[in-house]
Amino acid sequence: MSERRQLTYFVRTFGCQMNFHDSERIAGLLESRGYRAAESPETADLVVFNTCAVREHAGDRLYGHLGHLASLKRERPEFRIAVGGCQAQMDRERLLVKASHVDVVFGTHNLASLPDLLERVELTGRPQAEILEETEAFPSCLPSKRERSFRAWVTVSKGCDNTCTFCVVPALRGPETSRRPEEVLAEIEGLVADGVVEVTLLGQNVNSYGHDLSGRVKFSDLLRSLGGAEGLRRVRFTSPHPKDFPEETIRAIAETPNVCEHVHLPLQSGSDEVLRAMRRSYRAQRYLRLVESLRNAVPDLALTTDLIVGFPGETERDFADTLRVVEASRFDAAYTFIYSPRPGTPAASMNNQVAPGVIQERFARLVELVERLGLEANRPLVGRIFEVLVEEVSIKNPDRLSGRTRSNKLVHFPKRDGIGAGGFVQVRIDRATPHYLVGEAVERGRNPEGTASGEAVDRGRNPEGTASGEAGAAAVSAGEVSR
Ligand code: SF4
After folding, report:
1. Which residue in 477, 474, 389, 461 sits closest to 425, CA to CA?
2. Under a CB-based contact definition with an 8 Å cutoff, are residues 106 and 131 in contact?
3. pLDDT tens, 46-59?
4. What is the pTM of this model?
5. Ligand 1 pocket check: which of 205, 245, 337, 342 to mutate, most ligand atoms within 8 Å of Cβ?
């Protein structure tokens, strides 16, 4: 690594949006130090793993990837491997023992240290590990290399004050810390000036934003303050907690024109007993009342959720409660997870773990219900016209473009001249599936540079001027998406 030629890097990311956002910062940091992106791990001088300790088997997958790179390291001793993120924070000692060819281990709180740690490896010839227990800098304060030029994630808070018994986040990301609103707004203004038209506000418990700040700052105020940001067409946020959803937040979603009609509201379980064991402080009836309030206030709302099957102690009756609440909530899509014990969490040592065969059978029933509800939400959209923000050429069909409605529906439609990534276009829906829609562009909308090239597109309203009624969402997990 002491050569003067430009070094290259490859970042592999596991886990949640927070991690993908952190990876953009890692890429930005490395590029600010002269690195450039490589096409693959095999052709890179440096591979960075940004890891997850929440998702099932994430640790096994990491060690599998690291094992694969061991032969590269033998062939090219100057090849560098860095591991950061939640798994690194949790597994720091074991990592350097189990994968002795790793050069740098860094935690969730000190992304910014990565370039310096790499330099220290060159100076000392020894692996470097640095894990901090508290946030050094918000990742949003670091340079960034965004995956898409027209869309950005903005961290508004980090960490979590809740104690859900299945979750490692409080232990790994620390207590909740919010950024000052003026800092968030300044970042968003900069992004918009740079061509960003959609931002997603990120926080582990995003809607409790501000409770740790002086001056009674609230999440609803933050949403409303973004309503006036000229050029910012879409505002999303993830993930909110059902217990932190006062009426004023619901009103802010309903009344702020650029806040999209999509809420991802983790339910986890529909059983009060299981919710209690999970230490989730709402109960099924309260959740359903919240769903009703949201749907009443935001008629075009798309609602998605997270569900865990087979939490310790879950009985058939508890599971039936989950099916009942899912059906009553009419979710448009759901991330469904099979419970897997995460080391260090209270649930991992509960002695009433559910047999894997029972969990599999319940999981299959839940997925079947979620698919049916997804299709039921999507079918009524056929024949209607929606504003779509174009994201990319479809992965499966190069003659198609893919994009998302305000309600986060994935839409595929045939390519047309003048329409490209970052542009807005009106699409008529011709076909619905549980996870995506297929349609046809009916006018050009806006070109990728953001200058009007067709009729102006009003927020989520169809050409007749009536509410677009995007009563669906496509927050489908990767792998479920058909392209
Ligand atoms: Fe984890 Fe619960 Fe906090 Fe979400 S709210 S990050 S599940 S502890």
Report:
1. 389
2. yes
3. 999 998 876 656 66
4. 0.77
5. 205
